[in-house]
TrEMBL record:
Residues 635-649 are annotated as: Disordered. Residues 517-580 form the Aconitase A/isopropylmalate dehydratase small subunit swivel domain. It comes from the Archaea. GO terms for molecular function: aconitate hydratase activity; iron-sulfur cluster binding; metal ion binding. It comes from Halopelagius fulvigenes. InterPro entries: Acnase/IPM_dHydase_lsu_aba_1/3, Acoase/IPM_deHydtase_lsu_aba, Aconitase/3IPM_dehydase_swvl, Aconitase/IPM_isomerase, Aconitase_4Fe-4S_BS, Aconitase_4Fe-4S_dom, Aconitase_put, AconitaseA/IPMdHydase_ssu_swvl. The keyword Metal-binding applies. Pfam families: Aconitase, Aconitase_C. Residues 7-407 form the Aconitase/3-isopropylmalate dehydratase large subunit alpha/beta/alpha domain. This is Aconitate hydratase. Keywords: Iron, Iron-sulfur, Lyase, Metal-binding. Gene3D superfamilies: Aconitase, domain 3, Aconitase, domain 4.
Amino acid sequence: MGQTLTEKILDDHLVEGELEPGEEIGIEIDQVLTQDTTGTMVWLQFEALGLDEQQTELAAQYCDHQTYQFDFKNTDDHRFLRSAAGTYGAHFSRPGNGICHNVHKENFAAPGKTLLGSDSHTPTPGGLGELAIGAGGLDIAVAMGGGAYYVEMPEVVNVRLEGELPDWASAKDVILEMLRRLSVKGGVGKVFEYTGPGAESLSVPERTTITNMGTELGATSSIFETDEKTKDYLARQDREDEYVELKADEDAEYADEVVIDLSEIEPLIAKPSMPDNVVPVREVEGTEVDQVIVGSCTNGGYEDILPAAKMVKGREVAKSTDLIVAPGSKQASEILAREGWTAEMMAAGVNVSEATCGPCIGIGHVPASDSVSVRTFNRNFEGRSGIEDDSVFLASPQVAAAAALKGEIVDPRDLADELDDLEAPGVELPDQYDASKADLIAPDEAIDDELIKGPNIGEVPLKDPLQANIEGEALLKMEDNITTDHIIPATSDILKFRSNIERLSEFTLSRVDDTFAQRAKQADSGFLVAGENYGQGSSREHAAMCPMYLGIEGVLAQSFARIHKANLFNFGIVPLAIDEETYEKIEQGDDIAIVDDVAEAVESGQEEFTVRVNDDWEATATLDASERERHILTAGGKLSLTKQQNEED
Ligand code: SF4
């Protein structure tokens, strides 16, 4: 039987297990990436493992989320990251050089390689045929130590694209259509493999918009076959020699198929506050818009900003609306500036920012209270923009620019009818991505050979091995779809403590209940209770590390998001699945005890556990864990286990 492209790449990198959906497999990792909010902890963990040099083909450390360096803590973090990259042999991308996914795509992503990144949008280079997966920082540290990465073998779904996109429709609308059809849970445990004539019609930057936002479907990854377009993109980046032709076999069998006719795609928009809340733009036409931002790892490339620049050239942004362009990389900024587009945008009233994630996570350009912001980003979770009652819409650069010109949401086709000289901008790549690499420091150019730690850089917390008895209070009961942003908000006033777990943990779940952290610390042991899809969103391992530091022993939830569940194992917190009836019955403040000898039961492979509540009633909870994950849990987490193993060697 033939293989899908995903199976081929996994087969090439397989070190343990079999390619059976649902089975755990171990794969060799060729490349790793880390960004600034997750990277400090990755390197502290790498240091704690006692390893001298990173072992993958290529490691890259980016400074992109918090580039404004409001106070010394961020600057200290960036200096620490530079020193870690230099000490352990990674590339270092300076703050302002761009978002990890954009800069990685431009400089390092290569067909057929595996990439593991401590950021949930790591799958972006799937648009170039790289199999890229987001993971917790500790997994990255272990991969850098030469260890395999373990993941459940995903189901591979064929997304067959027919036809070609009409004017004013874009790659963003294709992924919004996927979200409209499949929802934010539709990709869990899956890799989406895009094939067909429609896929061939898309340029690499368009493909990476789709693979980037496959994360919002909950997918393990998304990938395109490679072809002349891939080769052409690499040639324009001066990396043609890295091209490899990769296709699924003709007789490959897919677990499922989704068919999208690109010629029927129209401009779409995700309404507040979920990326799958998608409707045609015409349904919300007329909504007044206070702010528009074009940028992010989804739509921050040269090819994304150029259409917006063409649309505003010679016109003026509506006086009632602010239009901010935050390029995804300095490469994009530099080329746009050389070609004169930056001046055209400025003349039209655009505020051109440095290349940063910034506003995507509420760092800068926070919307005004009770206002509407249209963004080309990938997420619009409530509060992510930096203000709780935000109203963020997600759309393509074309829809965003149209909104900025009109001051209200408008389908760009209708705006084109109104303004008779507004033409569909299309997608255009520069002849050559000719830009400086001054902000990228290669390992052989490193300026540090030892770690530089400022006063805000703390210690990595370690947990004791799992005990026989686990009991404590249900310290917090939460709804469905609790995100990692709820658990540890990524706003600048909080994120600056990312390398200082003692301080950061004070903000744990503060967006749900601001008394939680204090109560948890006092209790020193306890449980979290949640509905479906607990921990969705980013790969932020702080969202497991901080609850662990506060003494949380277990999470009882109806279901868990993939990366967060792996992070719970990695930090020694027991993730137990409960049914809806049990969820409804448990109240915050109830006394919970796991009846069995938990340490022994976990180690022996037991799947069902009895949960006793208030010494009054009992329910069954399920632990879905591989043998490897069980070892990790009983040791008190992956760091404790790896340290133990190193000491035994
Ligand atoms: Fe940065 Fe936002 Fe992309 Fe995350 S989703 S990498 S915060 S731009």
